[in-house]
What does this fold into?
Amino acid sequence: MKKLIFILLLAASACTYGKVVEIDPTTGYFPSKGKADVIKHEKYDLDSMKALVLVTASTFFQGQVRNMKYFDKIINLDELQTIIVQEGLQDKVPSIRDKIGVNKAYVNYKPFLWLRYKTRQEGRREYGQFILTDPKDMKDIFIAEKYLDYLTYGWAGVNDQRTWYPLCNALIDYIKANSRTYRQP
It folds into this structure.
């Protein structure tokens, strides 16, 4: 029994949870076990919009996007709210907690892309999605997803290597396909 517990703990410790890491310079990707499924991949001129990206996923995803070294500036909702106040745009952008507010921020502040995380259900299965949106028209230009497998691998089923890094790597592939200026960090 002690051996089994030791093996389970060893297996669980081999995977990380929410650890921001650098891209592996030999592969050009984050270290992952598996790939995310790309649901949508619209052709888009990313270089014209790389000056600013709003990341509303989490500080972990903000760090991962920062380590991609593509976007010039990465902000979260709190930072965007501060900018709206500092620029005196509160009357034009009263809230940014929904799609309409994000669109108003885009129109009244400056153009940016919006990267967010959400989950979707399909029967009893849950999927984590990385979605890149153009707030000008709220068109999703990129969607990647990964099945959130809480059972098959035990504690190791949903972690950085199996879930979050593959989503980030799918975004790297999207950037590579839609940018003339992206250079591997």
Remarks:
- The longest strand covers residues 113-122.
- The chain is about 35% helix and 20% strand.
- The CA atoms of residues 39 and 143 lie 5 Å apart.
